[in-house]
Amino acid sequence: MTSWAATELQSVTLRDARLRNRLFRMVDRLIAQPTASIPAASGSWAATKAAYRFLASPSVTPEAIRAAHQHATLARIAAQSTVLVIQDTTELDFTRHPATSGLGYLDHPKHQGLKAPVALAATTDGVPLGLVDQFVWARDAAQMGKKRQRAKRAVTDKERQRWATSLHVTQHTPSPPTAVW
């Protein structure tokens, strides 16, 4: 029997079959325990170590994994006559992880982390179909407290551009005859 992850991410492009199989095992374990840490979900020291090696591998990119999920999402969208695409931004708060680098300030200025605007496709009955678009980024700490200067920046340099880009991707990704709302 094929696992959910192997079916969902079958189009992932990774360097070799071992990386693909590790991805499928990791995703299946994390789905089985969505609130667990990697060590808790992995179940053993060897599996935990393998998961961290996988995540640190230069042959593995978030874009490749996301592209495989989006491919599966588009197949589900194509089977629908109408889909809803809901946009929202999630904040990934790493304030309590001081050794983490590459973070920006969040909506609460004393919190550090990443912003992740997403466009989630769903049926008109509310059944999630998957991500149509996602972009993970960090706010520039040098821009904190410079609200008045933001008005002078070009629209393409503003946070709202991420919404416009996501809308553009949403409008041009699904294949007809699916109506996208």
In short:
The protein is α+β, with helices and mostly antiparallel strands and 181 residues long.
Features:
5 strands; five-stranded mixed sheet; globular; Serum Albumin, Chain A, Domain 1; 2 domains
Descriptive account of the structure:
This protein has 181 residues and is an alpha+beta fold. The protein has 2 domains: 4-56, Orthogonal Bundle (Serum Albumin, Chain A, Domain 1); 81-180, no CATH class. The chain has helices at 4-8, 17-32, 38-42, 45-56, 62-78, 147-150, 160-172; strands at residues 82-93, 104-105, 112-123, 128-134, 179-180. Strands 1, 2, 3, 4 and 5 form a 5-stranded mixed beta sheet that branches. It starts with a helix and ends with a strand.
- Helical residues, percent: 25-40%
Based on Cα principal axes, name the global outline: globular
Profile the largest sheet: 5 strands, mixed
Domain tally: 2
Number of helices: 7
Uncertain ranges: none
Tally of DSSP β-strands: 5
Q: In terms of structural class, how would the helical and strand content be classed?
A: alpha+beta
Q: Kindly report how far apart the N and C termini lie.
A: 36 Å
Radius of gyration from the alpha-carbon trace, in angstroms: 19 Å
Share in β-strands: 15-25%
Q: Helices and strands, in N-to-C order?
A: HHHHHEEEEHHE
Estimate the mean pLDDT confidence: 87
Write the layout of secondary structure elements.
Blueprint: H1 4-8, H2 17-32, H3 38-42, H4 45-56, H5 62-78, E1 82-93, E2 104-105, E3 112-123, E4 128-134, H6 147-150, H7 160-172, E5 179-180
Parallel strand pairs: 1-5
Antiparallel strand pairs: 1-3, 2-3, 3-4
